[in-house]
Amino acid sequence: MSEAQNIYYEFWQETASRIKETLPEQEYHTWFNRIAYLKSDNHKVVLAVASQFILDTVIARYRDMIRNTMIELTGEEIDIVFEVVSRSKIEQIQQPSKEPKEAPKETTAFALQAKPQVSEEKTLKMKKDCNLNPSYEFHTFVIGDNSAFAYNASLAIAKNPGVSYNPCLIYGGVGLGKTHLLNSIGNYIINNTPELKVMYVTAEMFTNEFIESIGSQRTQQFKNKFRKVDVLLIDDIHFLQGKDSTQEELFHTFNNLYESKKQMVFTCDRPISELKNITDRLSSRFERGLNVDLQPPNYETRMAILKKKLVERGGSMSEEILNYIATNVCTNVRDLESSLTKLIAYSELLGQEISFDKAKELLGILPSLAANSNQTLSIDTIIKVVGEYFNVSSFEIKGKKKNKSLIQPRQIAMFLARDITEYSTTEIGTEFGGRDHTTVMHAHDRIESLMKGDESFANTIVKLKRDLTNGKR
């Protein structure tokens, strides 16, 4: 190390020492223990980090702080540059030098402490301890037009947790990949930055643990568990509707993590504005950051998903059968996988290749045509009843025509679907010819407004609702 380089190394040491006094201890050790002095040249200091993830985070959070501190110490304009180097090179940087003017023999808090590679077994245990599903990774997620925004947002968060897009809410109907993306974020962080503490829970798990902590008088232990993480991932927050005490606890947990610049990602089956019995102050927290939606996959994406799943399972199936599934199963990824699994299982158990006719027979009424059997009332039934009342066909209500004779029946059907089923506006919009969830929300508001000003019209809606809920369909 030359005399000039040695001087800048000394300045780097003092810079890191000063920054240490201004940052929380945990934050400092998490990031500055992973930066090493590499070299300097012509008013430029080059610092080394071991991954792109660390590089992006350090640049976003600390580069200006490092540069300004070093300028103050040297009285010179200093350019701070970062390089990603291999862990082996990091280890070489740390080796004590035999030259008297080399870096000190004892490594400092600012030289990156090269950590041994975490074994696959230990990584797997860490993921399970965090409640993560190790099989959900970004590379196993099939990206389509319906999911590109949510996928890229999730990947950006995984690479730079707490830096941007915080908090983030991913919403959409069942089986569209929300849980997959949420787990992918956690798995990516553990794979690349095992020092960060990740916690994944469903809203139901969060609620049950909170109730249990009250009963066992261990609420402080519960608070510590969720407020001392670096990344908090909570699935299905619509479960919190009407649970006031749990909402109160999550509100305070949210504030604590947000102020500490810790990353939070949530999922929900609908936009926050559509949740019922959620406090305004908690809703405003969810909406504070980035909100992205997952739409049902289009035909091309459905085919890509089926082919990828087929390869993963080492099976084979004719293009004709895959096309049949992709054409008919329009609801979500889960239903696609279910249909494929059923055919693969039949083929494997009987040891014979499955024919197209046999595939149609086995699948019977496909999920898209079954209209989600767990719902007591299908959207198709609502459209049919409304269409019969106004003497228009279901095809016309779902269609694109904007005749006055069609707009109101269409809006009424949307209003009733939103009012008497548990479908999200995204799912309802899909059943109405692939319309956007905002169209459904507008229709609901429009019909609600008309009912307030027209008693006769309100009676019509009440009658239709009564007929549907009483089983006259």
TrEMBL record:
SUBUNIT field: Oligomerizes as a right-handed, spiral filament on DNA at oriC.
Function comment: Plays an essential role in the initiation and regulation of chromosomal replication. ATP-DnaA binds to the origin of replication (oriC) to initiate formation of the DNA replication initiation complex once per cell cycle. Binds the DnaA box (a 9 base pair repeat at the origin) and separates the double-stranded (ds)DNA. Forms a right-handed helical filament on oriC DNA; dsDNA binds to the exterior of the filament while single-stranded (ss)DNA is stabiized in the filament's interior.
Sequence ranges assigned to domain Chromosomal replication initiator DnaA C-terminal in this UniProt record: 378-447
GO cellular component entries: cytoplasm; plasma membrane
NCBIfam families in UniProt: DnaA (TIGR00362)
GO molecular function, one term: ATP binding
Region feature Domain I, interacts with DnaA modulators, mapped onto this chain: 1-103
Region spans: Domain IV, binds dsDNA: 348-473
Record remark: domains: Domain I is involved in oligomerization and binding regulators, domain II is flexibile and of varying length in different bacteria, domain III forms the AAA+ region, while domain IV binds dsDNA.
Region (Domain III, AAA+ region) residue spans: 131-347
UniProt organism field: Sphaerochaeta halotolerans
Location of the protein in the cell: Cytoplasm
Main location: cytoplasm
HAMAP family recorded: DnaA_bact
Protein name, per record: Chromosomal replication initiator protein DnaA
AAA+ ATPase domain: residues covered: 164-293
GO biological process: DNA replication initiation; regulation of DNA replication
Family to which this protein belongs: Belongs to the DnaA family.
Keywords in alphabetical order: ATP-binding, Cytoplasm, DNA replication, DNA-binding, Lipid-binding, Nucleotide-binding
Annotated ATP binding sites: 175, 177-179
